[in-house]
Amino acid sequence: MPMWNIVADENMPLVEELFSTLGSEQGRNNNQIKRLAGRHISRKDLADADILLVRSITSVNRQLLEETSVKFVGSATIGTDHVDTKYLAANDIKFSSAPGCNAQGVAEYVLTSIAYWAELRDRDLSEVTVGIIGAGNVGSRVIKVLERLGIRCLVNDPPLEDSGDARHFVSLDRIQQCDVVTCHVPFTRSGQYATYHLVDEEFLESMPNNSLLINSARGAVLDNKAAYRVKQAGKNIDYILDVWEGEPEVNVELMAKTLIATPHIAGYSQEGKIRGTYQLYQAVNQWLGLENTIPLNTLLPQAPKWHWSGLLSGLYQSLKPYYDIQADDKRMRQVKTDIRNKFDHLRKTYPQRLEFLDTL
């Protein structure tokens, strides 16, 4: 008989390697692991499950968990807005997420974005100031990378500032005046530190001309409709967007106005996913009172060493062999074009029945 019944998102790596022998003696595979598509995990699938391991596309709430045997829920992601943590706490279901698991991947995405923009717009990065909103796991990694490269940073994070963090923080007004602004905050709709539409029309209008806004945090941190209006009105500002308000829907009008558009892949690296799974492995062990017997460094892929000349002017060309942001942008735009072409074909074939397509 299995010791633990585990249901896991099929896109989580190394679940079998980390969880199949969990709690067993002499490394025996005593646990039963069921792999399912994250979007289709149902209450029926969890009837006899003890542990549920998900990513961000599975909504974990009363509807999913009521009358199941789930005792532990883990999300191998930074964000937790897809999880009803209050319901879990009220029903004595342990919860853990994986903050910081993809921080390095997102930092590399942001660095590549800035380098690409600087080369395209002929900007000297030694004279550029980057404003960073949010200095948590991801924001701190971005700060560290930029400072090592000699790129000036200003940082805004009121929650950390109020908590006594010793770093130097500036107001959001100061951030608005930076050449580049990059967002790294969680998504919250209410409260003193709400981030819903934190970057709004007024913020964008206040940014200098020939500036850049990067959003790789959460889509609704940026007011997408306002971003489109500002650009449509003639504001000379570039957008590099990896996240979108209302995902999985994408504002295609705004997308057409972006310098780079990608489908929420900034932190979607193999290393980031492995770290996410491993953090849940650690959390389950702690919950069960067990030791971590598998070291993380035996699981991570070996990355090629980055060779850089030390010249900021050639930063993008140095990064391109490791990550080509233009390729991801091209793929996303091609998907949009393919969908539009299919709609056009349907419209011509069934003109009376598919009038609604004209509203898309």
Automatic annotation (TrEMBL):
Pathway: Cofactor biosynthesis; pyridoxine 5'-phosphate biosynthesis; pyridoxine 5'-phosphate from D-erythrose 4-phosphate: step 2/5. The keyword NAD applies. Keywords: Cytoplasm, NAD, Oxidoreductase, Pyridoxine biosynthesis. The lineage of its organism: Bacteria, Pseudomonadati, Pseudomonadota, Gammaproteobacteria, Kangiellales. It comes from Kangiella marina. It holds the Pfam family 2-Hacid_dh. Its EC number is 1.1.1.290. Residues 44-287 form the D-isomer specific 2-hydroxyacid dehydrogenase catalytic domain. NAD(+) binds at D157, D242, G267. This is Erythronate-4-phosphate dehydrogenase. Substrate binds at S56, T77, Y268. Catalyzes the oxidation of erythronate-4-phosphate to 3-hydroxy-2-oxo-4-phosphonooxybutanoate. Residues 315-356 form the Erythronate-4-phosphate dehydrogenase dimerisation domain. Homodimer. Residues 118-266 form the D-isomer specific 2-hydroxyacid dehydrogenase NAD-binding domain. InterPro entries: D-isomer_2_OHA_DH_cat_dom, D-isomer_DH_CS, D-isomer_DH_NAD-bd, Erythronate-4-P_DHase, Erythronate-4-P_DHase_dimer, NAD(P)-bd_dom_sf, PdxB_dimer_sf. It is found in: Cytoplasm. Belongs to the D-isomer specific 2-hydroxyacid dehydrogenase family. PdxB subfamily. The active site is at R218, E247, H264 (proton donor). It catalyses: 4-phospho-D-erythronate + NAD(+) = (R)-3-hydroxy-2-oxo-4-phosphooxybutanoate + NADH + H(+). Gene3D superfamilies: 3.30.1370.170, NAD(P)-binding Rossmann-like Domain.
